[in-house]
Inverse folding.
């Protein structure tokens, strides 16, 4: 009896201790963001340099007042990607370089007052990638930040947004699972767009592993790439819709139900003499 | 003399090259390659007639299906037609006309501090019928300055015309406009028996999709019936019901109706009254 009680109490104590520890520390699973199905990831070979900078002047440039913040965020984002490793302590083949003021950027950060071409109401950032029409491989991208996001975010929160978008450039898709239970940089932004990403807000080992996986074998990128099918502007395409559709009328229809009774004459044996039909029900539809 | 001419030719050639390079550089710098018109100009200069763009948007996320059901309007609707437009110098979007088959749940449009106003449908949209709405999606195909832009949203395929969908949307009833703020996890194809399937390929279950599977058998009909249970049967007159049963009749509690006991069945001539 004592042994059984000791075992039960031991299991109970272990469970309670696990609960206490789990409440004290948020535990993130290492979740997997899928692959970016828009195009084939940028670059080729085992070492792929990506030049990144922000537009410092001219149309859509980062406002002067925000340039130090964006510069700091970019430096942080580049550093995080370059030092992140997978479970084998190996980095991705991509090496981001902050080439501010020199060189031609592969990814350029610009700032827009508003992002109109978004599917939903909140619009934090967009990565617009241009692909080679023949190969489908990403050639360059603009990282579009909404002006209010730049103004109202801290450098750290802005760095998370930039890291997320750079993840798309090197082959990762968005993560749509419950970000609070996962460690991935591909989680969505916090509500309001000004507080960085949901979840762990860190590049995970799986993020790096997936970048390496899809770079090594683009065929492992599951699923069809979405593709627009036809020009549909100016009223063309998309099928014909009758602007004044004729209403459909159904005539009043009645169903008549009859029962049938077979009649027999029985005298020294029975013989069939006929069938009588009579109405039992009427059911009408208007 | 010849030497001077050679020197002059070399000088003018150098000047021409310098001026040419400078003017080319100036022209390139003048083009804002972030804009559609700028991209079109640069593509045309390269002799290309197409530009392929992928736009990756940020979306809202929810922790579970219950949060989505209390946050978004949920409808079953069939895509009827679509039209793409150049929205501004940065983006192309497509408006889909949907016929609403049934509304599972309608929620008010929540205030959103950092969101713009719900967009208005394009001016050339024919008047919507009472059971129709417009849904906006990023991407589409349009021609800008003679160059065709193919703009896709990765992981979020465009709607298929005549396909029925289950949509989780921010819905503005005054404008009859819906936006899929939660992104791909907010769209499901509905088959003839109500079965649901994701429109995007994912290596992970999202909270909405896994919630639909776990709680509603991944079926739109089950979801609709759970969110819109049939009204309780009317409270019938107890005495009428008892009287009916006493006469040997059969009582229909849904209709508060007594089906009288038929002593002679269908054989009318067997009834003593006939």
């Amino acid at each position: 009896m004592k042994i059984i009680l000791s075992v039960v109490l031991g299991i109970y104590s272990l469970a309670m201790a696990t609960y206490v520890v789990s409440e004290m520390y948020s535990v993130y699973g290492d979740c997997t963001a899928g692959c970016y199905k828009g195009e084939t990831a940028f670059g080729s070979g085992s070492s792929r340099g990506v030049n990144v900078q922000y537009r410092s002047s001219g149309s859509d440039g980062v406002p002067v007042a925000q340039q130090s913040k964006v510069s700091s965020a970019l430096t942080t984002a580049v550093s995080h990607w370059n030092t992140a490793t997978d479970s084998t302590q190996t980095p991705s083949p991509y090496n981001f370089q902050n080439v501010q003021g020199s060189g031609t950027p592969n990814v350029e950060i610009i700032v827009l007052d508003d992002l109109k071409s978004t599917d939903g109401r909140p619009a934090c950032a967009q990565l617009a990638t241009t692909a080679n029409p023949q190969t489908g491989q990403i050639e360059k991208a603009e990282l579009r930040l909404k002006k209010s996001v730049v103004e109202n975010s801290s450098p750290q929160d802005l760095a998370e947004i930039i890291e997320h978008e750079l993840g798309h450039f090197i082959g990762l898709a968005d993560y749509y699972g419950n970000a609070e239970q996962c460690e991935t940089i591909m989680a969505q932004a916090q509500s309001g767009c000004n507080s960085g990403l949901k979840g762990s807000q860190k590049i995970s080992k799986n993020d790096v592993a997936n970048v390496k996986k899809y770079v090594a074998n683009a065929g492992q990128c599951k699923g069809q790439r979405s593709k627009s099918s036809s020009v549909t502007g100016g009223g063309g395409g998309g099928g014909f819709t009758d602007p004044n559709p004729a209403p459909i009328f159904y005539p009043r229809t009645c169903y008549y139900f009859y029962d049938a009774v077979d009649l027999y004459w029985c005298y020294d044996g029975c013989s069939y003499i006929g069938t009588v039909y009579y109405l039992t029900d009427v059911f009408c539809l208007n | 003399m010849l030497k001077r001419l050679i020197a002059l030719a070399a000088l003018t050639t150098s000047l021409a090259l310098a001026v040419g390079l400078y003017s080319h550089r100036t022209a390139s710098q003048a083009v804002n390659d972030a804009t559609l018109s700028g991209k079109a100009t640069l593509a045309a200069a390269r002799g290309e007639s197409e530009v392929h763009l992928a736009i990756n948007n940020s979306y809202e996320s929810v922790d579970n299906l219950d949060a989505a059901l209390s946050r978004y309007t949920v409808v079953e609707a069939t895509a009827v037609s679509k039209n793409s437009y150049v929205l501004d110098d940065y983006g192309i979007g497509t408006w889909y006309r949907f016929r609403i088959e049934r509304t599972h749940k309608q929620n008010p449009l929540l205030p959103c501090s950092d969101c713009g106003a719900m967009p208005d449908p394009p001016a050339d949209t024919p008047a919507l019928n009472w059971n129709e709405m417009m849904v906006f999606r990023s991407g589409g195909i349009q021609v800008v300055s003679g160059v065709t832009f193919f703009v896709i949203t990765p992981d979020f395929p465009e709607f298929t015309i005549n396909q029925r969908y289950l949509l989780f949307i921010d819905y503005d009833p005054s404008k009859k406009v819906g936006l899929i703020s939660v992104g791909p996890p907010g769209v499901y194809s509905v088959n003839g028996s109500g079965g649901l399937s994701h429109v995007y390929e994912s290596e992970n279950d999202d909270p909405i999709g896994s919630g639909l599977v776990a709680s509603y058998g991944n079926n739109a009909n089950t979801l609709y019936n759970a969110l819109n249970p049939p009204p309780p049967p009317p409270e019938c007159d107890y005495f009428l019901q008892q009287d009916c049963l006493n006469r040997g009749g059969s009582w229909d509690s849904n209709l508060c109706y007594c089906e009288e006991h038929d002593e002679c069945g269908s054989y009318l001539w067997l009834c003593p009254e006939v």
Q: What stands out?
A: Confidence is low (pLDDT under 50) at residues 20-26, 224-232, 234-241 of chain A. Chain A touches chain B through 84 residues (CB under 8 Å). Chain A has five helices and seven strands. The longest strand of chain A covers residues 270-285.
